Every structure is written in structure tokens, then in C-alpha cells.
Amino acid sequence: MDIREASEYLGVSRETLYKYAFEDKIPAFKLGNRWKFKKTLLDRWMETQSTQSNHRSTRSKRLTNQ
């Protein structure tokens, strides 16, 4: 996927996606001077982010309820 396709797929702006790619926060690679994204890696990354987010939210709730 190119930057436009990936930003639409993820529901984030192109600017945000460029920033994430440049900061190695999202799986991406450069082909020439253009960022490229593999859908399978984006899906895996989103699953990981979702799992980490759920763990943080559960932990926060436990700490708040103590």
C-alpha cells in the first residue's frame, strides 16, 4: 500500500502516518523515496496496539479501584 491507501485503511491522516513511519512507530519501508506498507503487517500492528491498549486500560481500572 502507498501512504494514501494506508492512511485511508487505518483512518488516520497522511501527516500522522508519515510521522509514525519516520519515527518507526508503525511497520513501513521506503521504496525509493516513497513509504510503503504491507496490509498483513499493519493488521498485526493494529492487533498488538489493541492488545496493549486493553492491558493498559484494565490495569488503570484496577489501580483506580484500589
* Strand order within the widest beta sheet: 1-2
Largest sheet: 2 strands, antiparallel
Q: Helix/strand/pairing class, anyone?
A: mainly alpha
Output the number of helix runs: 3
Mean pLDDT: 88
The residue ranges in which pLDDT falls below 50 over 5 or more consecutive positions are none
Count of DSSP strands: 2
Order of helices and strands: HHEEH
Sheet-strand content, in percent, reads 5-15%
Ends: how far apart?
A: 46 Å
Total count of domains: 1
Description:
By secondary structure, this protein is mainly alpha-helical. The chain has one domain. Helices cover 65% and strands 9% of the residues. The chain has helices spanning 3-10, 14-22, 39-64, and strands spanning 29-31, 34-36. The chain has a two-stranded antiparallel ribbon with strand order 1-2. Helix 1 packs across helix 2. The longest helix has 26 residues, at 39-64. The model has no long low-confidence stretch (mean pLDDT 88).
Per-chain topology:
Elements: H1 3-10, H2 14-22, E1 29-31, E2 34-36, H3 39-64
Antiparallel strand pairs: 1-2
Helix pairs in contact: 1-2
List keywords for this structure.
66 residues; mainly alpha; two-stranded antiparallel ribbon; 65% helix; elongated
Entry summary:
The chain is mainly α and 66 residues long. It has helices at 3-10, 14-22, 39-64; strands spanning 29-31, 34-36.
